[in-house]
Design a protein that fits this description.
The structure is a single chain. 28% of the residues lie in helices and 28% in strands. It is an alpha+beta fold. It has a single domain (15-165), classed as Glutaredoxin. Strand 8 and strand 9 form a beta hairpin. The longest helix is centred in the middle third of the chain and has 20 residues, at 58-77. The two termini are 25 Å apart.
């Protein structure tokens, strides 16, 4: 498969792992991984799925995640039920990234796409890492799919791009 496009059905059998937020911002505290059935959740909700090459990496940290934190209320007001960040990092690194950025609840979930399996299945990878992309999945249908191929760009995958399509 080469990417996803608006109008496509979200694939079946997609799951990620994450560590549930505990309300604490201690990045050294670990929890047990939880399986998140994205396909099931996407069938009944409007999800924003945001893929990044890696937690704590320059563009991902400085501008990409920041765009979602700053626009979270607008995304929720526009009907997004859940914002999910994914990377090929493990679930503990992803949880620490959320905590390091002050996220201590489920307002944004930070999940692992182990070995970039989902991203590979849609062809949006760069080696062993996900490309920078964003999807809006509304009750099982992709309504927006944007990928950034220019290094450092969040033009198609930042929160502003999604808000323009909601």
């Amino acid at each position: 498969m080469s990417g996803l496009s608006a109008g496509d059905a979200f694939p079946e059998g997609v799951s990620f792992t994450y560590v549930a937020p505990t309300g604490e911002l201690d990045i050294t505290a670990c929890g047990l991984p939880i399986q998140y059935d994205v396909s099931k959740e996407a069938s009944t909700k409007r999800l924003a799925i945001v893929a990044v090459p890696g937690a704590f990496t320059p563009t991902c940290q400085v501008s990409h995640l920041k765009s979602y934190i700053e626009n979270l209320d607008k995304l929720k007001a526009a009907g997004v039920d859940q914002v999910i960040f994914i990377a090929s990092n493990d679930q503990w690194v992803m949880a620490a990234w959320g905590k390091a950025n002050g996220i201590k609840d489920d307002s944004i979930l930070f999940m692992s796409d182990p070995v970039a399996a989902f991203s590979k299945s849609i062809g949006w990878v760069n080696g062993d890492r996900t490309k920078r992309y964003a999807l809006i999945v509304d009750h099982g249908k992709v309504t927006y799919a944007g990928v950034d191929d220019v290094r450092g760009s969040i033009e198609n995958s930042g929160a502003e791009a999604l808000l323009a399509k909601l």
